Structure to design on (153 residues):
C-alpha cells in the first residue's frame, strides 16, 4: 500500500530536487517515521535504520532521489546538443561570472558535483567533464551501471 500510494507522491519529480545534507536528512527522517508508523513500532522499539529498510524492502528517499537525479542527467546528456536542457548544462560551465557573495546556491549541477565527489570516480567541474560523461551516457548499459553505483549511504 505504502509503495503504491504514498511513495510515488513523496518522490514525485525527485530527479529535479537539489538537496543539501540537512534537507536530505529531514526527508529521510520523515520517511522512516512513516515506515515505523505503518509497522506499529513505537519509540521504545529500538531498531536501526538499516534494519528498518531491510524489513520494509525499501531505500532511503535521498538514495531514490539521487538515482532519479542521475537517470534524468543521463537523459539530458543523450539529448541533441541543440536542445535547451543540454545547452543550460554547457552554459553553466561556460559562465565566467565571478563568485557571488553569500551562501552558495544549490542547483542540479552543484548537487551532481557533490555526488561525484562522494563517489570519487570522476569529476564534473568543466565542460570537458560534461562531454566525457556524455560519451559514457551514450551507452545506456554503462550509464545504468554507473547509476547503480550511486546507491551508497
Amino acid at each position: 500500500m505504502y509503495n503504491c500510494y504514498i511513495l510515488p507522491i513523496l518522490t514525485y519529480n525527485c530527479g529535479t530536487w537539489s538537496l543539501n545534507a540537512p534537507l536530505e536528512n529531514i526527508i529521510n527522517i520523515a520517511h522512516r517515521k512513516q515506515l515505523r508508523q505503518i509497522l506499529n513500532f513505537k519509540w521504545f522499539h529500538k531498531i536501526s535504520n538499516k534494519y528498518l529498510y531491510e524489513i520494509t524492502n525499501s531505500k532511503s528517499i535521498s538514495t531514490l532521489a539521487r538515482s532519479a537525479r542521475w537517470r534524468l542527467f543521463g537523459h539530458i546528456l543523450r539529448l541533441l546538443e541543440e536542445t535547451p536542457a543540454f545547452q543550460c548544462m554547457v552554459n553553466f560551465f561556460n559562465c565566467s561570472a565571478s563568485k557571488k557573495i553569500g551562501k552558495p546556491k544549490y542547483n542540479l549541477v552543484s548537487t551532481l558535483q557533490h555526488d561525484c565527489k562522494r563517489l570519487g570516480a570522476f569529476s564534473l567541474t568543466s565542460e570537458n567533464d560534461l562531454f566525457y560523461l556524455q560519451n559514457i551516457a551514450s551507452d545506456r548499459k554503462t550509464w545504468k551501471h554507473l547509476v547503480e553505483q550511486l546507491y551508497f549511504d
About this structure: The CA atoms of residues 137 and 146 lie 9 Å apart. The chain is about 65% helix and 0% strand. The mean pLDDT is 86. The two ends are 25 Å apart (CA to CA).
